Amino acid sequence: MTAPQYSPRATALAERVERFVRDVVVPYERDERCGAHGPSDDLVAEMRVKAREAGVLTPHILEDGSHLTQRETATVLRASGLSPLGPLACNTMAPDEGNIFLLGKVGTPQQKARFLEPLVSGRARSAFFMTEPAEEGGAGSDPSMMQTTGRLDGNHWVINGRKKFITGAVGAQVGIIMAKSDDGACMFLVDLPDPAIRVTRVLDTIDNSMPGGHAQIDIVDLRVPADQMLGQSGEGFTYAQIRLSPARLSHCMRWTGVVQRAHEIAVDYANRRHAFGKALIEHEGVGFMLAENVIDLKQAELMTDWAADVLDSGSLGTAESSMAKVAVSDALFRVADRCVQVMGANGVSRDTIVEQAFREIRAFRIYDGPTEVHKWSLAKKIKRDWKAAQA
């Protein structure tokens, strides 16, 4: 899982995380508390106690509160992702990991003490309230379509709107809500649960790795103290980019770990299973699929590390994270699909995580903007760059 280009501290940390996930977390994959809408909160809490004892809870945040570099984070999060439950146990899972990053960059000292500390310590979960119902014309990949409103009333903001596909809202203690004021997009920090934030349903989706699932939410006359606005009124889209660029890469890191493990399972199966007089791996069609897996996994790792280096250089890295998101999500989907194919009927059963890896990676191709939106964004940049070159 590690390579010479990573720092000694990241290499050592990733090795500890990997041992913990393989030895302690993997046995939980068959736990009955893993349900259709994600693992239960008591299961997550139980695993986090063990992660804390092993010294691998929130491993990307150092004791002084500083963050590993994005390149260092890559090898640690890949190790945590070797089980679908690993990021939950180690507190490196979305949306918490992205929310921790954003609060660390934008939050005031008071906001960090109240909202960030419980997340870093693993005592609380969070939710990011941005996406709105498409059937009502709300914001999705185009955040400028935001319909949720925030109106200043004395020293409080009053928020009204509807959200959809809000990951982890059920059971979360911290919320970041996006709404629009007269100045533009805004973000607000809220304590959860709140009677003004109503879960109308939890959707049945193809994935089930995140606690609380994905909920539809009605926000009715929610009053938020003015000092719980994150940053400045009208700067919400800027803050969203601060969060989304590294968050896209974090998804790439975690899901590479999951698919690496699916590949390991498929390799083991192909070497043990015999058909037509020899092991499956000795059949060219199977062997070639596994060879292609190795190529795609290495390309995913290199692409993520390259984009991480761009962020570490101080760049916002929007284009680079978009390129990585497209390349890595598509590559991992190919790998997961081949793993299912190599294992045949066993690949679509739930006897191993291969079936879940396939489902989760299909959803990953939509997280934080579908592939086509990122390609469109890159095409617009290509056009801008061409025009600038002609000037």
UniProtKB/TrEMBL annotation:
GO terms for cellular component: cytoplasm. GO terms for biological process: fatty acid beta-oxidation using acyl-CoA dehydrogenase. Its cofactor is FAD. Residues 128-205 form the Acyl-CoA oxidase/dehydrogenase middle domain. InterPro entries: Acyl-CoA_dehydrogenase, Acyl-CoA_Oxase/DH_mid-dom, Acyl-CoA_Oxase/DH_mid-dom_sf, AcylCo_DH-like_C, AcylCo_DH/oxidase_C, AcylCoA_DH/ox_N, AcylCoA_DH/ox_N_sf, AcylCoA_DH/oxidase_NM_dom_sf. One of its GO terms (molecular function) is acyl-CoA dehydrogenase activity. It comes from the Bacteria. Keywords: FAD, Flavoprotein, Oxidoreductase. Residues 234-381 form the Acyl-CoA dehydrogenase/oxidase C-terminal domain. SUPFAM superfamilies: Acyl-CoA dehydrogenase C-terminal domain-like (SSF47203), Acyl-CoA dehydrogenase NM domain-like (SSF56645). Residues 10-122 form the Acyl-CoA dehydrogenase/oxidase N-terminal domain. Homodimer. Belongs to the acyl-CoA dehydrogenase family. This is Acyl-CoA dehydrogenase family protein. It comes from Sphingomonas tagetis.
